[in-house]
């Protein structure tokens, strides 16, 4: 029976951990916002909290846009480690900032690092997977996001008013993981050349990578559809994870119950990712994404109805998590099937970067609804509409005919690693 080679095992572990950081980070901020507002930390207002969340996501978007071409040119390994280092350091110092502007600056720079983690990690996992398992490799990697989100929600419940400890823990964890990446993470990019874990340099590239290649006639329709789908998907992910506790508090639930709902939402997401990737690889990534976005629209609209029964509410939130978050990840899976091998990291980076615009719009628009006092129920109407638009965007993308991400045996053989 086939087993994972040592190098592939470390790829799975370390790329998964890299994605954990993103889920932890966004939920750490979202779960801390009610406490920050109640305590008026450094004089923070709701508009200040919205500003901090927005500039953080601007940094993430810029980081994602920059990392794709860099990763195609220099390989996956070093850009991923640099991203983790920047994110970890500026997450650690975030609670120490003395005013709103400095808090925003720390979040902006942390976002630059965070933005590089996800696209490189997902691309690396796809390159190390079998040709017919890229969707599952993507969703498996992205379970890390929601494990991180669950950890942050638990941390917020335990920390209570001592919110800085959530950020100290996240930053310290990144610094602990970094030496493991240096020692154990191999290079998977054939363009950069095989590199053993611990090597200092990737082999030089001989072919110039042009970012505009993803916009040529062959891929234009695919690129636009995936960009819009990613925009809507990340609008949902970040809008919900940033503001769900406050939305539910506005609906009349207490803070503890709101944090529990955030936890339940992300537990549902983990289950959905484990199911959705396998379904997409077997039945087709496009059809699966259409079903997942459509179900998301229905469930989000249902959350606009006030539910007195806590068990029923938890069940609806759980199922919502199953569909909403996997919808976004299926867009990343689509990238692995849609672009040729030489530009797949650029394709992933730009899809992630454009998606980050949705990640900015989601918390910003929802924050305005909170300020205006109409976030419940109109926030859920807004989210349901976004899911419908995501469905339409996926419908416009041509069905993938083939995928050109190389089989993992190629880089394993080149670097001396074999599956048994």
Describe the 3D structure.
The chain is mainly alpha-helical. It has a single domain, classed as Growth Hormone, Chain: A. Helices cover 76% and strands 0% of the residues. Helix 2 packs antiparallel against helix 11. The longest helix has 34 residues, at 6-39.
Number of strands: 0
Structural class computed from helices and strand pairing? mainly alpha
- Number of individual domains: 1
CATH superfamily: MFS general substrate transporter like domains
- Which H/E pattern describes the elements? HHHHHHHHHHHHH
Indicate the radius of gyration in whole angstroms. 20 Å
Low-confidence stretches are 192-209, 402-420
Count of helix runs: 13
How much is the average pLDDT? 79
Distance between the termini: 8 Å
Write the layout of secondary structure elements.
Elements: H1 6-39, H2 46-74, H3 77-93, H4 100-127, H5 134-159, H6 164-184, H7 220-250, H8 255-283, H9 285-302, H10 310-338, H11 344-372, H12 375-396, H13 408-415
What is the gist of this entry?
With 420 residues, the protein is mostly helical. It is 76% helix and 0% strand.
Characteristic terms for this protein:
single chain, transmembrane helix, MFS_trans_sf, Growth Hormone, Chain: A, 420 residues, mainly alpha
